[in-house]
Design brief:
This is Methyltransferase domain-containing protein. The protein has 405 residues and is of the alpha/beta class. Helices cover 33% and strands 23% of the residues. Helix 5 packs parallel to helix 6 (176-186).
C-alpha cells in the first residue's frame, strides 16, 4: 500500500507495467547506452479517488532543456488552441490590462495567440529548446518549473494574473500542493486557474492504457479534481469535455467562494458515479483488458512477421514507450517508426530501441501494415496518408482493442 500524494489516503495498486524508461528520452545511436528506468505502477486512492503512479520520476529527467515534444506539430492541436485562445480573450482576459500566465507553454502554440492579441502574458516552461521557439514568436517566457515560489515571484514582478492556464501539464506534476499554492499567490481576486488533461473516464472506458507513462503521474477525473481543489483552498466551478487526445477534460477552478459552480460539475459527477470510477473493481477490469490487448497485439505482429508481411510504426509518441516496453515489441517486430518531429529523427525509441526515421521513409516503399501509435490523431494521420491506403496498406490500432482498418 502507498499513501496518496493528494490526501494521504491509501492507494491500491491495480496495474504494474514493469520496467519502463523515460518516455521522451530518445536515444542517440552514436552515444552511450545508459538509460534511466523505473517501475511504472499505477493505483487508485480509496479516499479521494485520485488515480496516480506509485513511483515518481525526477522532473529534470522527464523535462530536460532539450525536451523534444512540440505541441504545434499537429493541425488538430493548432486548431484546438486557436479556439481556446479566442475563448479566453472573449471571457477571462477582458477589462483593463489583463495578465495571462501559462504553465507548460511549450513552443507557444497558445501563448503566441495571446501575445498577438496584445494581452500582457508570461509563459513558464523548463524546456529551453521549446521556449526558444515560443520566444521567436514574440512570447515572453520564463524557463523554469512552476511552483509556489514561482507564483509569488511573478506576482511581485508583474502583478496579479486574471487567468492561469495549463494544458496537458498539471497531471505531470507530483507536487500538486505547491502548484495550487503558487496559483493562490499569483491569481487576482476572482481569477481562474484553468487546466486541461486527458480524462480518466475516457481512459477507463476505452482501455487507453498507453496514456499511462512517466509524465502522466496523475489521471484526473472530475471527482478527484474536485477533492484536490477543495484540499488546497480552491473550488471546481466548471468542467468541459474535449475531443482531443482521445478525450480530455478542461477544469476551471477558483478560490473557494469566489465563483458559483456551473451545472456541468454536478452532471459530470453523476456520470462518473454511473461509470463507477470510484470503485476498485473498475480498475481490476481495466487491467484485465490491458493484458488482453497486449497479448493480442504481440500475437498479431508475430503472425504478420511469420507471413512475411512488412510492418512499421507511425508516430514515435510518448505513449509508444509504454506499449513497446510492456509488450516487448522491438526492431524484430517493427524495424522502424516514422515521425515528423525533427528532434526525434535519427534516434532510437527509449527502452525498445526502435529506429526513428523521417516521414519520407514511410513511402519508400509503403509497408503492408502500419502500427499507429499516434492513434489520438488517427483521423488527421489517415487523411494525410491516403496514398498508403490506396497502395493497399492497412492500419493497426490496439485501443480500445486490437483491430485492423
Amino acid at each position: 500500500m502507498t499513501s496518496c500524494r493528494i490526501c494521504g489516503g491509501t492507494v491500491q495498486e491495480f496495474f504494474d507495467f514493469g520496467r519502463q524508461p523515460v518516455s521522451d528520452a530518445f536515444i542517440d545511436p552514436n552515444g552511450g547506452n545508459t538509460e534511466f528506468f523505473y517501475r511504472l505502477t499505477v493505483g487508485h486512492c480509496t479516499t479521494c479517488s485520485m488515480v496516480q503512479q506509485l513511483k515518481e520520476v525526477p522532473r529534470d529527467r522527464m523535462f530536460p532543456g532539450d525536451y523534444p515534444y512540440r505541441s504545434s506539430g499537429s493541425a488538430v492541436m493548432r486548431k484546438h488552441f486557436a479556439a481556446t485562445a479566442d475563448r479566453f480573450l472573449a471571457t477571462e482576459l477582458v477589462g483593463e490590462d489583463p495578465f495571462y500566465v501559462e504553465i507548460g507553454c511549450n513552443d507557444g502554440i497558445l501563448l503566441g495567440a495571446i501575445s498577438r492579441a496584445g494581452v500582457r502574458h508570461l509563459g513558464v516552461d523548463p524546456a529551453e529548446s521549446a521556449v526558444e521557439v515560443a520566444r521567436e514568436q514574440g512570447c515572453r517566457v520564463r524557463s523554469c518549473f512552476f511552483e509556489e515560489a514561482t507564483g509569488a515571484e511573478i506576482r511581485a514582478a508583474e502583478g496579479p494574473a486574471q487567468l492561469i492556464f495549463s494544458a496537458n501539464t498539471i497531471s505531470h506534476i507530483g507536487y500538486i500542493e505547491s502548484i495550487f499554492a503558487g496559483a493562490d499567490a499569483l491569481l487576482a481576486p476572482g481569477g481562474a486557474f484553468v487546466f486541461e488533461d486527458r480524462y480518466l473516464g475516457d481512459i477507463v472506458e476505452h482501455a487507453y492504457f498507453d496514456q499511462i507513462y512517466d509524465e502522466h503521474f496523475y489521471l484526473f477525473g472530475v471527482r478527484s479534481v474536485q477533492n484536490m481543489a477543495q484540499r488546497f483552498g480552491f473550488e471546481l466551478v466548471d468542467v468541459e469535455h474535449l475531443p482531443v487526445h482521445g478525450g480530455a477534460m478542461r477544469y476551471t477552478t477558483a478560490r473557494a467562494g469566489e465563483r458559483a459552480p456551473t451545472p456541468a460539475v454536478a452532471e459530470w459527477l453523476a456520470s462518473e458515479e454511473k461509470q463507477r470510477l470510484a470503485e476498485p473493481e473498475v480498475y481490476t477490469e481495466f487491467g484485465a483488458r490491458v493484458e488482453a490487448n497486449c497479448r493480442a497485439l504481440v500475437e498479431l505482429l508475430t503472425s504478420l512477421r511469420a507471413e512475411g508481411r512488412s510492418v512499421v510504426g507511425y508516430g514515435a509518441t510518448s505513449k509508444s514507450a509504454t506499449v513497446t516496453n510492456y509488450c516487448g515489441i522491438g526492431p524484430d517486430l517493427i524495424p522502424f517508426i516514422c515521425d515528423s518531429t525533427r528532434e526525434k529523427q535519427g534516434r532510437l525509441t527509449p527502452g525498445a530501441r526502435i529506429p526513428i526515421l523521417p516521414p519520407d521513409a514511410f513511402s519508400d516503399p509503403y509497408p503492408d501494415y502500419a502500427l499507429l501509435f499516434a492513434w489520438n490523431h488517427a483521423e488527421e494521420v489517415m487523411a494525410k496518408e491516403q496514398a498508403f491506403r490506396e497502395a493497399g496498406g492497412r492500419w493497426i490500432l490496439y485501443v480500445p482493442d486490437v483491430h485492423i482498418v
